[in-house]
Amino acid sequence: MTLDEINLGTCPVDRGLMRVGDRWSMLVLRDIERGLTRYEQLRTSLGIAPNILSRRLSALVEAGLIAKNRYSEHPPRDEYLLTDAGRDFLPILMAIGAWGRKYNGAGALSRHRDAATGEIVRPVVVDANTGAPIGSRPLRLEYPD
Amino acid sequence: MTLDEINLGTCPVDRGLMRVGDRWSMLVLRDIERGLTRYEQLRTSLGIAPNILSRRLSALVEAGLIAKNRYSEHPPRDEYLLTDAGRDFLPILMAIGAWGRKYNGAGALSRHRDAATGEIVRPVVVDANTGAPIGSRPLRLEYPD
DNA sequence: CGGGTCACTTGCAAAATGATAGTGACTGTC
DNA sequence: GACAGTCACTATCATTTTGCAAGTGACCCG
After folding, report:
1. Which nucleotides of strand D are protein-proximal, with an atom < 7 A from a CB?
2. Sign of the torsion formed by the C-alpha atoms of A10, A91, A63 and A47
3. Count of structural domains within chain B
4. Deepest of A43, A88, B19, B45, by most Cβ within 10 A of its Cβ?
5. What is the pTM of this model?
């Protein structure tokens, strides 16, 4: 019985947070995206305690967001790579980043630029059906039967 | 010196998580959006311990995502309302919800429907410049000087 | 053989979380 | 007007999680 089989609520937000709902996990994902895929790279970049990093990494593996990949046998060396689920989470981090920039963005911050257009990326959450930003149209919350 | 004046990194994601980076905070925001604005409503809906809820609520007030509003003097009754910053965070919760539905969505889940079209909302994070989903175009990460 | 790197684990202290009980301001009811 | 009941908490204490520091094992390089 994994942690998911118990207490399955009906709220998809809760379901998501169940898998990544803490700060370190998200920062690990962000760093892996930046190319920091090895334990030592993550540890020094984040300034996280080694035991905590170990636990977060195994939790993320268990949750299916990253996979541990041995790329060298001698010496034994592993890297952590994003799975499809992990890559799918990255846009959310971008959205959180945009929010953080807006509401807690004093000083100079890093940012993403579109490689083709050169423009600074402005992440927004929209409804794929209408293309309208979430929050710009009234919604109705629906519960399952 | 608030918690923000120290350890200001250059990453906007970190800046965002600094303010909301835990499960309860996000679930509180979700519930307030659903109209559960009072202490007792939140406590029973979330099944959270009262001391924890108190602390989360004051942290969210301090972080500027919600505001405490006294709507009755006799008896003294307060409600917690979303600020602009808090409302701006809701689309992120929708995106997390969409992710949670996709990767941890066994069973029946609640969902949002567009009030006008009646269609089920499908939140996606796009670049406002191009309209393209984040992840569909190569990006370049840029650091401040 | 000795030092150095990498990827951790172990042991213990400190902090956060959670369960339970209690408190103060009321309100409404006999 | 005493008494149960609701609301919005606080206080106390156990449990859990986090974090620091030190250590370990596999290996590589001189």
Report:
1. 6-12, 18-23, 26-28
2. negative
3. 1
4. B19
5. 0.92
